[in-house]
Write a structure and sequence with these properties.
By secondary structure, the protein is α+β, with helices and mostly antiparallel strands. The chain is built from 6 helices and 4 strands; from the N terminus they run αααββααββα. The model has no long low-confidence stretch (mean pLDDT about 90).
Amino acid sequence: MKKILLSLLLLFAGLTLTEAQTKPYLSLSDAQRITAAATEKAMAEGWNVVIVILDDGGNLISLQRMDGVQVGSIEVAQAKAKSAVFFKRPTKVFEDAMKAEGGARIATLPNAVGVEGGLPIFKDGVIVGSIGVSGVTSAQDGIIAAAGIAKY
């Protein structure tokens, strides 16, 4: 009975039961592994940051704030991650576009953050989430985010 109800719900959502069961996703253990790798890089460099991992819908999976990081970096890291997952591209793309002539219009896009440090996370060519880092310079935030994804 439960399988029939699930199939009906998925049918209304436009998915088959097989599609719902096989869609790639970012698990908590994936998020923890990415966060650990990013933390390792940050600590090796002596940088204290906030590291955020979101799922493919922009929902929080994990948030880590290292000691001594300014409170404002919590929301900045979340915004970077949200931008990366919503637009399926690194936030550095927006930063570069804003530096270009006429790039100020990027600032008018909802959820577009023009500061490096947000990266999308893909699995089997499908976006499954994102990482956002804030606390040091935007270039350093980007290095930490890339280190996290490199271990994914």
